[in-house]
Known about the structure:
By secondary structure, this protein is an alpha/beta fold. The protein folds into 2 domains: 2-109 and 295-324, Quinone Oxidoreductase, Chain A, domain 1 (Alpha-Beta Complex), CATH 3.90.180.10; 124-266, Rossmann fold. The chain is 31% helix and 26% strand. The protein is built from 11 helices and 15 strands. β14 (296-301), α11 (305-313) and β15 form a beta-alpha-beta unit. α3 (123-135) packs across α4, α3 packs across α10 (273-288) and α9 packs across α10 (273-288). The N and C termini lie close together (10 Å).
Amino acid sequence: MKALVCEAYGKVEDLVYRDMPDPIPGTGEVLVNIEGIGVNFPDGLLVEGKYQSKPETPFMPGGEFSGTVSALGEGSSDFLVGDRVLGWQSGFGAYAEKIAVPESVIYKMPESMSFDQGAALICATATAHHGLKQRGRLKAGETLVVLGAAGGTGIAAVQIGKAMGARVIAVCSTDEKIAFAKTQGADDGINYSQQDLKQTIKDLTDGRGADVVYDAVGGDAFDACSRAMAWDGRLLIVGFASGRIPTLPVNLTLVKGYSVVGVFWGAFTQKQPKDHADNMRELFQWFEQGKVVPVIDKVFSLSDGVQAIKHVTGRGVKGKVVIRP
Length: 325
Ligand SMILES: NC(=O)c1ccc[n+]([C@@H]2O[C@H](COP(=O)([O-])OP(=O)(O)OC[C@H]3O[C@@H](n4cnc5c(N)ncnc54)[C@H](OP(=O)(O)O)[C@@H]3O)[C@@H](O)[C@H]2O)c1
């Protein structure tokens, strides 16, 4: 099969498009012919050796995929050859034409979902869902501030925040991205490259501050939000796309009575598999109701996978990028 391979940790440009042996499904596994691969910000970090996990080289990056079950390993029982599925495999292995995965990491796709949508649904969207539901305990009527709101997980947080009944403030670096976030349901926007983020959050909430902040950006934006939280608020730590992991004067949490809560979706899927399965069911329902629908910004071929990753890490994306092998 063809694959995009990391032969040594280094630059994304050094990924090699080449033949790799076809994977063989082991006990309890299925083989999936991949139709779509979701590109995520961490794919670039993984190749550069800057991610939490470091698979042995050579490996294919990419954890998120959709496709058709093409063979069953011994003992696999929940799927049939021909089933349309989407899945997530611990952050690598998906930049390829085929993948062998345990049954536990795949889900049958709703009939009305395309392979591109399926490839784009799981990581960014399920992270936003888990973050806002289990970690943020977001309630209807609360104010949710989403940083980097036009990005993959940001736009999912906008859609899910609305599905959960919150008022959503989208924070983006350009007016064009804010306009995009509003097409996906955001009630208000803040352009943090031009407006004072802390002050504008306060202005838009009559001085109360944000009940929940979904922060996949970190850096200066985190610093501003840590001073614009409402009493009993939840500041969700999702990622550091700005490149700076911020530090927090913890007295702020005491004085303002808010919590800082970490969100690590990959670990959640393993430590709370039943809650993860329930979340996926709810996401599929929201998809079928048209409330949470992945927005595909651009589609690339696998041989152009380097450009696909660059498009995501280069801050240009509105929604999600998908690769079709
Ligand atoms: N905790 C978890 O379980 C989990 C799961 C998935 C992803 N993540 C993390 O979430 C973050 C976002 O992932 P994503 O896939 O949504 O990425 P994305 O689509 O590239 O979105 C990231 C957003 O961050 C903003 N940003 C600010 N400074 C940036 C910079 N210097 N370079 C690039 N973007 C910058 C951009 O919005 P503006 O231009 O509007 O500022 C961009 O739209 C990543 O750090 C990723 O590792 C965490």
